[in-house]
């Protein structure tokens, strides 16, 4: 099978738009609300989930024929937990300030519905290469939502992006934009706009 066959392209592209884990499946909402008060932690969280989803998908796909059905969830959790631990240690070593901002939410990636959903729905029944593409696509589909929400909240909340001033000095900081409730409203607006443009088949 060609590396970039139609099926493989679909495995990568659909989670970015037509089958987006946040916009369509409404998964991973908690972290999307919790870590998006600024753009930097949104980017780091999105990339962390992408890396973990990609590698966990490919590992489970490689092991899928040897995993007893009755303990498959336990094996999946062990694989994800190991990857989350590695990512958490890397963040603490090279991006400590962002790691502090993300707090417990990096550890909670272990229970992220997106990861477990892709492992069960795709990696357990597909070859490693399509599983890798699906993992990357699902992670990036989640990540771009976090980046969009984080950019909007930081820009209109503080007048900055990545702590670089965009709005002129004197812009009154909007405290409401940093509140979790506003993240929910922004996310709801993005979901509404997406579903208004993209026709989802029942």
From TrEMBL:
UniProt-listed Enzyme Commission number(s): 7.2.1.1
Recorded topology in the membrane: Multi-pass membrane protein
GO molecular function: oxidoreductase activity, acting on NAD(P)H, quinone or similar compound as acceptor
Annotated catalysed reactions: a ubiquinone + n Na(+)(in) + NADH + H(+) = a ubiquinol + n Na(+)(out) + NAD(+)
Entry's transmembrane regions: 43-63, 75-96, 102-119, 131-156, 176-193
Protein keywords: Cell inner membrane, Cell membrane, Ion transport, Membrane, NAD, Sodium, Sodium transport, Translocase, Transmembrane, Transmembrane helix, Transport, Ubiquinone
GO cellular component term of the entry, any: plasma membrane
Statement: the UniProt record of this protein carries the keyword Calcium: no
GO biological process: sodium ion transport
Coarse class of the protein's main subcellular location: membrane
Location(s) in or outside the cell: Cell membrane; Endomembrane system
Domain of life: Bacteria
InterPro entries: NqrD, NqrDE/RnfAE
Record family assignment: Belongs to the NqrDE/RnfAE family.
Subunit and partners: Composed of six subunits; NqrA, NqrB, NqrC, NqrD, NqrE and NqrF.
Main function: NQR complex catalyzes the reduction of ubiquinone-1 to ubiquinol by two successive reactions, coupled with the transport of Na(+) ions from the cytoplasm to the periplasm. NqrA to NqrE are probably involved in the second step, the conversion of ubisemiquinone to ubiquinol.
Protein name: Na(+)-translocating NADH-quinone reductase subunit D
Organism taxonomic ancestry: Bacteria, Pseudomonadati, Bacteroidota, Bacteroidia, Bacteroidales
């Amino acid at each position: 099978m060609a590396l970039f066959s139609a099926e493989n392209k679909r495995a990568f592209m659909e989670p970015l738009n037509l089958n987006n884990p946040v916009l369509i499946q409404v998964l991973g909402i908690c972290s999307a609300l919790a870590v998006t008060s600024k753009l930097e932690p949104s980017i780091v969280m999105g990339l962390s989930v992408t890396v973990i989803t990609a590698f966990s998908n490919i590992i489970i796909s490689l092991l899928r024929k040897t995993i007893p059905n009755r303990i498959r969830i336990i094996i999946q959790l062990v694989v994800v937990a190991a990857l989350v631990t590695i990512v958490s240690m890397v963040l603490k070593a090279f991006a400590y300030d962002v790691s502090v901002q993300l707090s417990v939410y990096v550890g909670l990636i272990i229970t992220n519905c997106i990861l477990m959903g892709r492992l069960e729905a795709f990696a357990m029944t597909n070859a490693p290469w399509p599983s890798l593409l699906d993992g990357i696509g699902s992670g990036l589909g989640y990540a771009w939502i976090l980046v969009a929400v984080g950019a909007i909240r930081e820009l209109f909340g503080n007048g900055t992006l990545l702590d670089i001033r965009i709005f002129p000095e004197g812009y009154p900081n909007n405290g409401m934009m940093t509140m979790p409730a506003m993240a929910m409203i922004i996310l709801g607006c993005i979901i509404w706009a997406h579903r208004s443009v993209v026709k989802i088949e029942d």
